[in-house]
């Protein structure tokens, strides 16, 4: 058999046609393109012109556009098979129903945090505790959700102040789950100041995780989070150590809250997380709710200042990773999951359709049900928009079919919202009806003035650029995306 | 400061102009008038820090981009519908395969 | 996968047979001591009970009238329960199954509808479907405790329903044996064919399908067949719909190396359900030698791309393995993915490798390395750093076994 001499491949480009895509000119001489399954490319103006004119002179360009499903050959069928498959994977939780169920077991709290988004009550009166009856009704609602996985999160006030009810709910939930057989998870959100050994033991027996607040190093944390004795930080760290010792280091996670005071210290805050053995930090933005607005915390800085803080922090974290420290930034990781995988996010604030109701339900101590934590806080500020009903009068179906959920879901839906529907970054963003209602008075919001929009439009292009240009970041971001 | 721009609705649709105005005009006022084929847009601002000439250029660019988006959308509409329909019927099929929810 | 240094075929040294064979496939069994054979040869349908034996090259030929074949020296290693096939005239022996190795493969055909630039088994057009019967007979004679068997070609699925039948026959006869099939996957783009394959319902069967590009422009060029990529991907998707075990294979060479990362991204976004991905080094045999200009590249030149592609897949929770890449040519952070896959290491190596501290871990070389080998082979310390400095390395160059200086330096553009 003779071997025929092989000719180099010629670029065949007269049979190429567009697949659906969006574009934006986000930087000089650069056009970002994306499609509904989250594939994206940064093209030069010249490359974009070739794509628009469908006159291709660059084989590399044709190959990368084919590989990511921006164009296809007219006689090939795999792109039209793969796109729906990937889209289905990205949206597979549609129809699952509410997965996160937050139980506000008490409003009592020992802390007086500057930015508190809850109307906390002092530690003694029990009239602000959830009753067992309400807890049980709430559990019935939670288990009516069709979601095969239910996460029950205990909040407050300070949730450990009503540990008896936590115990009651966990045991009742497990009992109910023998029938429902859902994937059941429990988290206690707590400042850990009241953590007793029997609580750790109970958590060990029932696979309960802890989520606590850590705002940074001692001075900053205690400044933000006042309590009698001024020892919030010490108690938190002690609680973390005790949980880790008895249950393992992955059983407690920490969330920070950003205040005006935090903005000057991104590196120090990050250092304190590393020092205390955390592998993840969420460089959070401050939500404009509750005591935050009353005390003027929200007015103290704007989105621009926060962005500066964020990027200083993110870049510092990347450098730390380069020197061998294992630390993930959670906001970036959320975006990266959308950019680099087809896995849906579990973060309700960055979900499309909006996470209000469909993603989370909040059962307040008094039995009232809200579509989100923020919805509950708005009620404290006098705005009852997101109060859906009560555990004693509404079942799951009733709650999901309230006007506010239906309207908020439909109107905030980014793929059909003004500006969002054309935006190339929409697949990486979310539809937060609650925050736009709060800031601008309607579920959609005018995106050019939305800090939510600005965050995505600043952070995502930055992540794309780092991913495209920096080999270390490519590897790091791929790992962050798959957490 | 005021600038007038005219778009031809045979080149740029009214919707494209509206979308561009929505996106770009955060720091200035505008008025839109339809006169036959012409879409007349008047941009005005009292704020001297707003570079109105740059804004007008940006608006024109943005209008053209939205017209381009219309073209891409029109040419890929059938594929988009097919992809969506196939994806969603698959999601429904897979949800039905999961356990039945208990009411 | 890797070529054995051991010979798998040869001409009989001498033989005596009554008439042309009707059975081609034989298993070596214990010989009757009176027969004078080293082994008795057994076949499933040998009704005549005529004694037929195997004698080794240096054994005495018995002076009875029994039929026998005598192995050439290179096949004297055959032992009890090994399985061979003979030509009708018994003057050619092919070794089909050896009991002491895990790399037994049955060649089902040399025909193929692809024509890969680097094909190690260059396709032939002649009908060779008698190989299917040979395979079926080998399966019938194999021991039940065999761990794994491979089906290779050419393109095994060229037989259509007969291929499915063979798979079914295997699954029935050898329920405790794993089956690894190599195929270009194109025939599975016919959903009915994929369905029939799935109906065999063998949980220990895996199909290894190569992808040489993230899109058709590159892949179709490498396999020299238009439309191949589209069919292959459709085939993989169909097999995936039916829950079949799939391995994706990627051969790294001059054409595919620049696209390794793009291919890894494509697999993780579009084919995340596959069981594993194997990235393989180039064997300079078959069509690869004739297409030297198109395919040869010094592996050290795509070191970075290989590491990035492997890490990308691993970070996306896809099981990835690297075959046939010497450790001195790869980044240490992917050593944990390297499979020691070329056997008979002791027989084929470069003297430069003798003092290497990671020699035992390393896959070693194909014996075809004499047709193309890296200019950067070097001995390493345990941590992956060079054992010798540059001056010492240059002095060692003269010890090298292969004509490395005559191989042009290539680079990824």
Describe the overall structure.
The complex is a heterotrimer of chains A (483), B (103) and C (413). Chain A is an alpha/beta fold. Chain A folds into 2 domains: 16-90, no CATH class; 100-400, Alpha-Beta Barrel (TIM Barrel), CATH 3.20.20. Chain A is 41% helix and 15% strand. Chain A contains 18 helices and 17 strands. The model of chain A has no long low-confidence stretch (mean pLDDT 91). Chain B has 103 residues and is α+β, with helices and mostly antiparallel strands. Chain B has one domain: Alpha-Beta Plaits. Chain B is built from 2 helices and 3 strands. Chain B has a 3-stranded antiparallel β-sheet, covered by helices on one side. In chain B, 18% of the residues are buried. The mean pLDDT of chain B is 91. Helices cover 23% and strands 17% of the residues of chain C. In chain C, strands 1-8-7-3-4-5-6-2 form an 8-stranded mixed β-sheet, with helices on one face. Classes of the chains: A alpha/beta (483), B alpha+beta (103), C alpha/beta (413). Chains in contact: A-B, A-C. At the A-C interface, helix 2, helix 3 and helix 18 of A face helix 4, helix 5, helix 6 and helix 9 of C.
List the helices and strands and how they pair.
The complex is a heterotrimer of chains A (483), B (103) and C (413).
Chain A lengths: L15 E3 L3 E6 L2 E5 L5 E5 H9 L5 H9 L3 E3 L4 H13 L9 E5 L7 E2 L18 H13 L4 E7 L7 H18 L2 E8 L6 H9 L2 E6 L4 H7 E2 L5 H16 L4 E4 L10 H10 L4 E2 L9 H4 L8 H20 L5 E2 H11 L19 E4 L4 E3 L2 H8 L6 E4 L5 H5 L2 H10 L20 H8 L10 H19 L1 H11 L2
Parallel strand pairs in A: 6-8, 6-15, 8-9, 9-10, 10-12, 13-14
Antiparallel strand pairs in A: 1-5, 2-3, 3-4, 7-11, 15-16, 16-17
Chain B lengths: L1 E7 L5 H11 L4 E7 L2 E7 L7 H46 L6
Antiparallel strand pairs in B: 1-3, 2-3
Helix pairs in contact in B: 1-2
Chain C lengths: L8 E3 L2 E3 L8 E5 L9 E4 L9 E4 L11 E4 L12 E4 L5 E6 L7 E3 L22 H12 L6 E5 L8 H13 L4 E5 L8 H9 L5 E6 L5 H8 L4 H14 L3 E7 L8 H11 L5 E5 L6 H4 L1 H4 L7 H13 L4 E4 L14 E2 L50 H8 L16
Parallel strand pairs in C: 5-6, 9-10, 10-11, 11-12, 12-13, 13-14, 14-15, 15-16
Antiparallel strand pairs in C: 1-8, 2-6, 3-4, 3-7, 4-5, 7-8
Helix pairs in contact in C: 1-2, 6-9
């Amino acid at each position: 058999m003779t071997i025929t001499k092989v000719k180099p491949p010629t670029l065949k480009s007269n049979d190429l046609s567009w697949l659906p895509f969006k574009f934006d000119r986000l930087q000089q001489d650069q056009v970002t393109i994306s499609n509904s399954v989250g594939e994206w490319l940064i093209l030069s103006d010249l490359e974009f012109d070739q794509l628009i004119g469908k006159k291709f002179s660059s084989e590399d360009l044709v190959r990368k556009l084919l590989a990511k499903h921006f164009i296809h050959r007219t006689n090939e069928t795999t792109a039209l098979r793969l796109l729906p498959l990937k889209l289905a994977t990205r949206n597979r939780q549609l129809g699952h129903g509410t997965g996160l169920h937050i139980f506000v077991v008490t409003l009592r709290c020992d802390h007086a945090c500057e930015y508190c988004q809850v109307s906390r009550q002092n530690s003694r009166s029990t009239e602000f505790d959830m009753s067992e009856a309400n807890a049980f009704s709430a559990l019935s609602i939670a288990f009516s959700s069709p979601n095969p996985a239910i996460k029950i999160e205990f909040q407050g006030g300070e949730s450990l102040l009503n540990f008896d009810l936590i115990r009651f709910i966990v045991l009742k939930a497990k009992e109910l789950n023998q029938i429902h057989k859902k994937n059941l998870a429990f988290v206690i959100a707590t400042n850990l100041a009241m953590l007793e050994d029997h609580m750790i033991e109970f958590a060990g027996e029932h696979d309960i995780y802890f989520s606590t607040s850590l705002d940074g190093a001692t001075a900053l944390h205690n400044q933000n989070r006042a309590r009698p004795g001024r020892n919030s930080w010490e108690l938190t760290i002690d609680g973390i150590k005790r949980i880790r010792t008895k249950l393992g280091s992955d059983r407690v996670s920490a969330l920070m809250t950003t205040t005006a005071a935090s903005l000057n210290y991104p590196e120090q805050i990050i250092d304190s997380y590393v020092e205390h053995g955390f592998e993840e930090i969420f460089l959070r933005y401050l939500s404009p709710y509750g005591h935050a607005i009353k005390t003027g915390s929200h007015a103290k800085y704007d989105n621009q200042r926060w962005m500066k803080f964020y990027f200083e922090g993110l870049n510092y974290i990347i450098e730390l990773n380069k020197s061998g420290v294992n630390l993930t930034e959670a906001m970036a990781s959320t975006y990266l999951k959308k950019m680099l995988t087809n896995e849906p996010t579990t973060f309700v604030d960055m979900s499309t359709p909006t996470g209000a109701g469909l993603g989370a339900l909040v059962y307040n101590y008094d039995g009232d049900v809200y579509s989100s934590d923020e919805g509950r806080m708005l009620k404290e500020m006098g705005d009852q928009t997101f109060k859906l009903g009560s555990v004693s009068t509404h079942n799951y179906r009733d709650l999901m079919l309230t006007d506010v959920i239906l309207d908020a879901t439909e109107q905030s839906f980014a793929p059909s919202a003004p500006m969002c529907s054309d935006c190339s970054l929409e697949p990486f963003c979310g539809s937060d009806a609650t925050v736009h209602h709060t800031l601008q008075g309607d579920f959609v919001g005018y995106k050019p003035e939305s800090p939510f929009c600005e965050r995505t439009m600043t952070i995502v292009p930055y992540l794309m650029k780092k991913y495209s240009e920096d080999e270390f970041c490519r590897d790091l971001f791929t790992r962050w995306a798959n957490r | 400061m005021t600038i007038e721009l005219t778009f031809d609705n045979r080149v740029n649709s009214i919707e494209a102009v509206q979308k561009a105005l929505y996106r770009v005009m955060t720091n200035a006022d505008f008025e839109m008038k339809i006169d036959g084929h012409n879409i007349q847009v008047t941009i005005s601002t009292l704020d001297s820090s707003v570079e109105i000439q740059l804004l007008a250029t940006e608006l024109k660019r943005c209008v053209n981009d939205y017209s381009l988006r219309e073209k891409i959308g029109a040419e890929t509409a059938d594929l988009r519908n097919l992809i969506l329909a196939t994806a969603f019927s698959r999601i429904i099929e897979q949800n039905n395969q999961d356990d039945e929810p208990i009411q | 996968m890797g070529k054995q240094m051991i010979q798998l075929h040869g001409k009989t040294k001498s033989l005596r047979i009554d008439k042309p064979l009707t059975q081609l496939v034989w298993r070596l069994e214990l010989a009757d001591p009176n027969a004078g054979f080293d082994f008795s040869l057994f076949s499933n349908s040998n009704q005549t009970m005529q004694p037929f034996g195997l004698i080794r090259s240096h054994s005495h030929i018995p002076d009875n009238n029994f039929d026998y074949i005598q192995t050439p020296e290179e096949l004297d290693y055959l032992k009890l329960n090994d399985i061979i096939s003979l030509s009708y005239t018994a003057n050619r022996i092919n070794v089909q199954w050896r009991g002491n190795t895990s790399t037994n493969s049955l060649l089902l055909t040399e025909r193929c509808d692809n024509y890969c630039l680097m094909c190690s088994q260059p396709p032939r057009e002649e009908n060779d479907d008698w190989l299917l019967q040979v395979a079926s007979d080998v399966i019938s004679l194999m021991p039940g405790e065999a761990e794994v068997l491979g089906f290779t070609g050419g393109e095994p699925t060229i037989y259509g329903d007969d291929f499915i039948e063979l798979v079914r026959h295997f699954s029935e006869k050898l329920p405790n044996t794993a089956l690894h099939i190599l195929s270009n996957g194109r025939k599975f783009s016919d959903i009915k064919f994929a369905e029939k394959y799935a109906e065999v319902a063998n949980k220990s069967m895996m199909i290894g399908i190569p992808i040489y590009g993230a899109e058709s422009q590159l892949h179709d060029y490498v396999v020299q067949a238009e439309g191949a990529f589209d069919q292959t991907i459709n085939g993989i998707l169909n097999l995936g719909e039916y829950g079949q075990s799939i391995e994706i294979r990627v051969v790294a060479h001059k054409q595919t190396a620049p696209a390794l990362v793009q291919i890894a991204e494509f697999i993780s976004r579009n084919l995340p359900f596959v069981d594993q991905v194997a990235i393989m080094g180039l064997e300079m045999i078959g069509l690869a030698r004739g297409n030297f200009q198109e395919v040869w590249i010094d592996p050290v030149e795509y070191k970075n791309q290989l590491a990035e592609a492997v890490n990308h897949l691993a970070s996306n929770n896809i099981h990835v393995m690297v075959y046939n890449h010497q450790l001195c040519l790869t980044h240490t952070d992917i050593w944990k993915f390297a499979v020691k896959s070329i056997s008979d290491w002791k027989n084929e190596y470069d003297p430069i490798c003798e003092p290497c501290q990671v020699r035992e871990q390393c896959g070693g070389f194909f014996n075809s390395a004499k047709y193309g080998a890296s200019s950067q082979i070097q001995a390493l310390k345990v941590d992956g750093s060079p054992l010798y400095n540059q001056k010492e390395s240059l002095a060692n160059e003269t010890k090298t076994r292969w004509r490395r200086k005559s191989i042009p330096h290539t680079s990824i553009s």
